[in-house]
Each structure stands twice: as C-alpha cells, then as structure tokens.
Write a structure and sequence with these properties.
The structure is a homotetramer. Chain A contains 14 helices and seven strands. With about 300 residues, chain A is α+β, with helices and mostly antiparallel strands. In chain A, a hairpin with a 4-residue loop joins strand 1 and strand 2.
C-alpha cells in the first residue's frame, strides 16, 4: 500500500487549502474552537495494510457519526420489526434537524436513523434500562470495533450539547407526543448527546469502518457484528449518511459513509477498506469540506464507487 | 330581556340532543370524565340585563379560552412592537398544535396568539419573573374581569396537562431553538398549563365577555382594560378564535369568540352583550357542538353578526 | 360629508410620499408601466354623500378585486353546499399563489375563494356554459353594481395575464387532478384572467362597495344582491381579503376589504360607506402602500373598525 | 446458467400467488385492462448467458422506467452543470407526483430525475427542437440498448396518458412558473407521455439493463454509453429508482433498479447481469408486487446486494 500512502499525502497536500471554503460548526462552543487547519486521514485495508497522514491522531467528537453506532446497537439488541415500526429507512431531502416532515409525512415516524429524530428514536431499542446503561452499550461497541478500550465521551462537549440541544428536545417531545418514543425523553437525549460527544481519532474511525468493510469480522476471524447487520447499516449509510446531499454524494463518491459536524467522516468500502478522515471546516450541509474532497478523490483514483 | 330568556330556554332545549354528535376531549383524563349532558349558558347585556339557563353555574376548565386572558395580559404589560416581533396575527388553517408551520412559514414565528405555540410565546410578555408571578397576573385579571375573586386553577387538571403536555413541550423547545422564546421553557409551560386549568362557570365567561363588549369598561365606568387593547383582542378573536374553522364561523356566526376543549365558549358582541356557554361534547375541531349551534342560533335570531 | 372631503384631501397629501416605499407589480408588463404617483380615492356614503380626491377617475385593472365579483356570482348562481364542497372559507397564511397547501392540507381543496386557487375553482359555479358566458355574467354584475354599463376587460392586460399565467395554470391543473375542478381548465382560466383584467376607476370600486355596504340594496331600494349573499361576502373579505396579512389588517383597520396587485382596494363599511382607492406601488404582500395607509387612517379617524 | 434458470422457474412459481396482494394501476384505462396473472422475467448475464421464464415475451408500457432512458439521453446530450442547475439528485420521501416539495424545498427544483417533475424537467436537455425529435432521440436510444429496432410507443396508452395527465401538467406549469422549465410545456409533456407509453418486453428491459451492467459496452465491445454516464445513472437508480421506498429497497435488495406502474422492473447488477421483470399488480408505492418479491429473492440467493 505504498502507492496509497503517496496518493494520500499528495492529495491531502493539494486539498488542504480548501479548508478556507468551510466554516466551523458554531452552535456548540467547543466545536467552534477546533483548529480549522487540522486535516488527518487513515485508510486501513481489509488485509491489514494501512496508510495514514496528517493529524490522524488528533481526537475530536464524532457527532452524527455516532448514529451508525446507535443504529448498529439497536439492530443487534432488538427485533427489527419493532424498530422499523418506529423508524423508516427512506432518505430525507430536509435538514438533519427538520421537524415538519414528522408532522406532514404520512408515516408519522422519522424517515431514517441517520437524521436526528430517527437517531434519537432508535435509542429506545438499544439494550439498557437507564441512560447510563444505554450509553455504556454504545461506548462498548465503539471500543470493541475501534480496538480502543479507552475512548470515551468528552464531558465538556456533552455539557454543551445538553445546553444547546433545544431543537433535539423539540424533536424528542414531538415523537413522544405521537407515540414514536415511549420512554423518558430526558434519558434518551442524555444517551444521544453523550454518543455525539464520543471522542475519537481518524484511526478509531478507520478501524470501525474496516470491521464494517470486512462484513463484521474481526482480524482474528471472530464475528464482531453479524453480516446481515453490517449490510443493512452499509445500505442505510449509502442512502442517508451524508445528510441531505446523500444523493449527490452517491453519484460523485458512491461509498457508504457518515459525516459529523465535528469534521469527521467514516467511510466503508465493502470488501476493501475502512476510511477515517478529520478536517473541521464544514460545507453548508454540515460535512467536512476537505474530507468530502479527499474521499471523492480516493473514490475516483481507486475506483471505489459501488454503483 | 324576558324575550331573550325565553329564546335561550327554547333554543337550548331544542339543541341539547346535538350533544350526542360530539365527543369528549380524551387526552386529559379529567376532561374525559365531564358530564356530556351538561349544557349551560349566560347572556349578559352591556346594560346589565341578563339571561341564563341550564348548567350555567357548573364549573369547568377554560382550556384555550385562557389564550384570551394571556393575550390581554401581554398587551397590557409589554410594548406591542416587541410582542409582534415574536408572534404574528394571521389565521392558521392548521390544527391548534401544529408544528410544521413554525418551520416552513417564512416568518419563523407562531402565526397568532390563539394557537398553542403563539399562546405559549406571548407568556414571556406577561408581567412577572417567575411562573408563579406570571400565572398570578393572569389569574388576577381573570378574577377582576369575571368579578369572581376566588376563581382558580384546578390542580388535578393542571397535573394532567403537565403529564400529557409533550406536544406543547415540543412546540416550546422548537420556539426556544429558533429564538422566539428566550426564557425557561418549563416555566412558561407551567404558566400555560395552569392558565388552561383555570376553572370558571358560564357566568364567569359571560362577565369577562361583557367587559370586552363594553370596550373594557367596568360597571362603575372604570377602565378595566384600555379600549385599544380590547379592540385588538376582539379582532384577533374574530380572525383566529375558533381554531381552524374560524373562517366558517365568521361567515355563519360573525361574533368574536374563543372556544376551549373543556367545552366552553366565550363570545363578545361589541356594544351589546357578553356570552358564556358550556357543553363538553366537541366537534372535530375541538369546539363544543351545542355551544356552536347555540351561538349560531343567537346570532341569526338577534342579528349579532358583525360583518 | 364636507369634513370627510377635507379629511380625504389632507390625509392623501400627507400619505402620497409613501408611494416611494412600494414597488410596481412587475410580472405583467402592463402593470409595470403604471404611474407610481397616481393616487385616487372615492368614499361614497350609503346615504348618497360622496367624497373623492386625486386620480379617482383613472382606470386600472382590478386584478384580485375581481375575486369578490366571482364569489358573488357563484353565491348567486349555484347551491352553496356544492360550492363549499369544493372551496373552504378559512384564511391562509401562505402567499396567494401557493400550491403546497392544496396538497398538504387535509381538506384537499382551496382554503378560501380570495386566493388564486379558490377564485379559479368557484368559477365553475358561475352561470354560463362557456368562458364567454361566464365572463359575461361577471362583467354584467360588475356593471350593475358599479352603475357603469361600459366597464370592460382590458384586452392588452388580459393577453399579458394569459402569457404569464403559468402558476395559475399549475394551480388549475392540480385542482383538476384532484377533482376540485371538473370542467375545462383553459376555459376557467380565460374567465379568471379576463376578470382580473377588468378595468375600473375608484368611483366604480366605491359604487360596488357602497351596494355591499347597503346590504345589497340599490339606490331605488331594489335588491341587487340578497342580504345573505352580501353578509357572507363581507365576512370572507374580512377574513381573507388582504392576502396573508388579513389578520394584521383586521387588527389595524377592521374593514372588510379586498386589494389587487393593480393597486386598487375596495372596502366596505357595513351600513356606512363604500370606499375605492388606487395607488399602484405595492408592499411585499401585494397591497397598495398608500391605499393601505389611507384606509387605516380613515378607519382610525372615523371609527370604522367593525371589531 | 442452468441453475439460474431453475432458480428462476422455481421462485416464480412460488411467488406467483402474491399477485393477488397487488392492484392494477387504474388511472389509465389501458393499464387497468392488463392481465393480473401475467408474470415474466429475463435475466441476462454480462457474459451472454440467459435465463427467462413465464410471460417474458409479453409487451407492456414501461411507464416510469422511461425515466432512465430520458436521464441517459440528457446526460449524453447536454452539459451536466446545466442539467444539475435544474434538477437535484436527492431522494424524495414523497409520492412520485408530489408538488408541495417543489414549493417548500429551499432549492426550488425537482429533487431528482426519477420523480415525475424531475423526469419532465430533464427532457429540455434531450437533443431535439421538437417533441417529435426529442421522443425520437429517446426511442432511438431505447432501440439501440434493447437491440430491438421496432419497439415503439403504444398510441392508445399515449392518448390515455395525455387525457389523464393533469397532475403532470400541474407539475410542468409550476416548474415553468419558477424557471425550471423554459420551453413549451405541451411539447415536453408530449415527449414525457410518449416515453411512458414505450412498449417493451422483459427481454427488452433485460437487454437495456445488461448494457448498463456492462458499463455501457455493447457485445461487440463498442461503447454504447460512456462509462461515466452509466455510473451516474446506476447511482441515481439506486438512490431514487423505487419511488419513496427506495431506502427500504436498498436495504432489502440493494440493486440499482427502476420500476414502472405498468408492472415492469428494470434492474442492473453492475458487472454481472441485467434483469427485466413484468407483473402488473402493484403495491401501494406503485411497484410490481411479484417483481419486487422476485428480485429480492434473486438478490438474496445470488448475493447481488451492492452494499
């Protein structure tokens, strides 16, 4: 994978100036203090090969990338027919925190588990009776897949999420009022905010992505996640993972991915590799500008588009 | 007013069977236990004449009729330009607890103070620093206008409102997230739920309505509410007071009114009379079936339509 | 009415500079060529008194004011229950040419006859088998009420309406697809566009308004329109006549009115007077800036607010 | 491919009874007269192998499957940046003929070329000055890809589409009014309706799909469509091809596909095979019930899911 290492370095040096076209997420103070010049990436092959460059060891909060972990947990922990009674699997053209479609769409449930409403709703199906247990479950899966037994929630960012989380509270209470959520709103939101505040590096993301690229198998051949769960998750990532530009991304990149407003992107090339990228400046949809450009370039150069 | 008394009795006897066409509000247990056969009305002339019949002395919670009291208080207590920065004055064709229009409508504020969102938002402009003070302010005005110094919140219904108030919580947190509400959501909702749970009789409603019919003057000629405040309130009642059937009601009845899901209707015939009606079974829009029929009949027979 | 004449002159001189705050309607070339300084008004008392000032004899196309005439004709010509199966009577907070609410609102019919969709739909209930007959019917009523047997459609403006009428075509075909409209879309649109292009003066508008203020009676005491039709029309004007600022207008002015993007306003003060105003520069909602200011001033000074 | 032939036969015999769960498209009389028991399928491998069973030689109109052909033509004939100025590439959770999202969605353009609005809009970018030329262009591509030089529009169905096409007219005029469409609405709709009425067999569909599975190469190695055009088209099919159940379909089937209310499905397994299926009874979203079940079974049994 020497060539990939070179490609990564060359491409990232070329793309780095694009950071100036993005803006830092501002709604959470801690995110607004990120280093806009930070740019890191890890590409881990399913065969154990690895390429990495830049600030790949810098930690950041994964924000919406946590939606993959929550979704994996709920698929692992609950009967699927119960989950899909409460959350659909369709893409949404609206913003990730839109509420109108909950009221106007005939199904009266969140359109998919990659928008905020859906990601909150699926938490009811994650194992655990308390917020602490549910978050513990998600963190445990994250640690297992990332092979990093110490990764954890950034307490300061979590507090910020709580303080600025009124839109998510509105979504959750709306879902409670129409029966999509049955339990405690405060408890589910605590889990949601803590999962968003999980702190990882590009290496962590790429390790998680690599397990998904290996159909759920760990390096020792042990099944970490059943293949069917992985396949559903990859499909949902492909359809809905990049907010309301998932369609454009499918056409231009074609790799099941999930971005977060912390600047991270986790991308899974089935059977080939797991990718983790970090660069905080965001485009208008909430996705890392440099991260988006880098993965597009990798997809083009390495023919990774699944379509 | 002997003729009016006869008219009231005759009409109410004729209309009473219509109660079977309505259904009791069920979302709050206490409302679901109301007597569906209860039917009372008071018509108090601006000149002091009075007609009343049926269960006019029975107490019930005023629910949405409280929106008039909250709106009056905010108009009395705060600069109007600040209020109307946060709440519009346009009718809404949507349900009283709709949230989509908060997101989709260009103004990004509640359409009017007679729907739940607007009624919650105006509470920030009612005098008082705490929920207790703000509710005290509203209750004091209610007692003053009704001439009933002991009317108060029904604590059991208030608790029910709190327990079933997730949709209103969703509306409030949404408004908080877009800056329509700046203070504590919990505090405003406490005021809102307590105002909805104010307990009155038809006589109380008719007394309040009579002050509004008298342009805000008390019987002794004292100004209880400035005329301009009364006029604005009557206009808003005419435009938005009967949920999303306000237009039909304007055509058929044409009297500034406000209904509540507790079965009450407060109606103001400017310069002529104040009307209070109570009958719990509701139509699909949340208005008392018998109340609606009675006021239509009164409007027709007494030529009360302002249009 | 000498005082009124003075009031009118003084007020109009004061308000004339406001014209610079508005903009001419631009979507139809002919409207964009109007004289922005034109400002005229007629106030005709039910008793025969009259005040008029400025460019009150200048002809202009009435545009949306024609919605009153179409609505009057359908109420006169068809059973009301059939009309109200197809068109509601509720205000709309959306723009006059909005289409989304036709699809999203549960009733699946135009919200009221004062928005474009509703005004097109009611034309099916105007007497006549052809576009020519239906338009003839509307023009005949206009001539009768205005006492002006020669008023007619401005052919150039009509042609412009046809050429730029794609949004209205879209509304009409949508209504056809959901069964609100059953007949020929082209035919109804021809009637609609011709009615919009009816050319009148302030005097014509004030004469029409005066008949409505007189509950439908002509000067000789003959019933030109039944009282019940007049009352319904005035209520609908009050609720929906000023586009999506009808609520604000009710609060500030409180007179059943209808404005048009040609710069005209027709206002009916029940039992008192009919008013016609003309000044082409429009506010953001499509209503004459000077016209709006003038009628507000008249309402304040003469206590015309019905609420 | 003997095994595939057996699998196809066995599976289709098992699934045939599902036809009773669907309903025939009724809005076009000709579609309502289809044989509900008809069930055919062709699976053509990229290597020239073939399996086919049932009513695979029966002709039917392709309806929405034509959206692929129109999209291919516009990508071949016009600069892509001009196309994507007018049509987005995002999935829609709404019905295929929804109009509200055109007005409410911030981009003010059709969400993707697989819903009616988008499919009409892209026709402006198909080569040709007249409806005849544009349709000729689409038909020519269809004939080339299907290897069937005589396939053509079913004139009777085309006439039916015209007669019942009011919703599409509404969409087109709306787009014209907001500048998405610049040319003649009637002309574009003629092309649209004619393309929907193209008559094909399962073999035709499978042949077209097989070219797309071969990255655009014909059997003789000639480039029929450039690879990049094929990739974009397959991505859009995967994201938006199955109406508003594209997400569920991605999870369950994971094959770029397009269905039509005529009962056809065209599915492309990149690098492997092209599939054409026909069975008229539809599910609530407008997709063939048996066709959907068959392709899901093929995907499961042959591991065709791309995710």
């Amino acid at each position: 994978m020497q060539d990939l290492q070179s490609l990564l370095e060359t491409t990232m040096k070329q793309l780095a100036p694009l950071a100036s076209e993005g803006t830092l997420a501002s709604y959470i103070p801690a995110l607004g203090r990120a280093n806009p010049a930070a740019f890191g990436a890890c590409v881990f092959g399913v065969d154990g090969s690895a390429a990495q460059y830049g600030d790949y060891a810098e930690a950041f909060t994964i924000q919406s990338i946590s939606k993959i972990l929550s979704f994996l947990c709920c698929l692992l922990d609950s009967p699927w027919e119960r989950i899909f009674e409460k959350v659909s699997l369709e893409s949404s053209p609206s913003s990730f925190n839109a509420i109108a479609e909950l009221e106007l769409h005939a199904t009266r449930k969140p359109l998919n588990p990659m928008i905020n409403a859906g990601a909150i709703a699926v938490l009811e199906f994650v194992a655990g009776d308390t917020a602490e247990e549910k978050f513990g479950r998600i963190r445990a899966l994250a640690r297992l897949l990332a092979g990093n037994p110490t990764l954890d929630c950034n307490e300061e960012v979590y507090q910020s999420e709580q303080q600025t989380g009124d839109r998510n509270r509105s979504l959750a209470y709306y879902m409670k009022s129409i029966g999509v959520i049955e339990g405690s709103v405060d408890s589910l939101l605590e889990v949601y905010f803590r999962a968003c505040a999980l702190e990882m590096t590009c290496a962590d993301l790429a390790n998680i992505a690599r397990v998904l690229a290996r159909d759920g198998l760990g390096d020792d051949g042990v099944v970490l996640i059943p293949k069917e769960v992985v396949r559903v998750t990859r499909a949902v990532m492909a359809m809905c993972g990049m907010y309301n530009e998932s369609g454009r991304y499918a056409v231009e990149v074609g790799i099941p991915s999930k971005s977060g407003v912390g600047g991270g992107i986790l991308a899974v090339v089935p059977g080939k590799m797991g990718i983790g990228i970090y660069s905080p400046p965001l485009n208008e949809h909430g996705t890392s500008v440099c991260g988006n450009a880098l993965i597009k370039e990798l997809s083009d150069r390495l023919s990774l588009n699944v379509f």
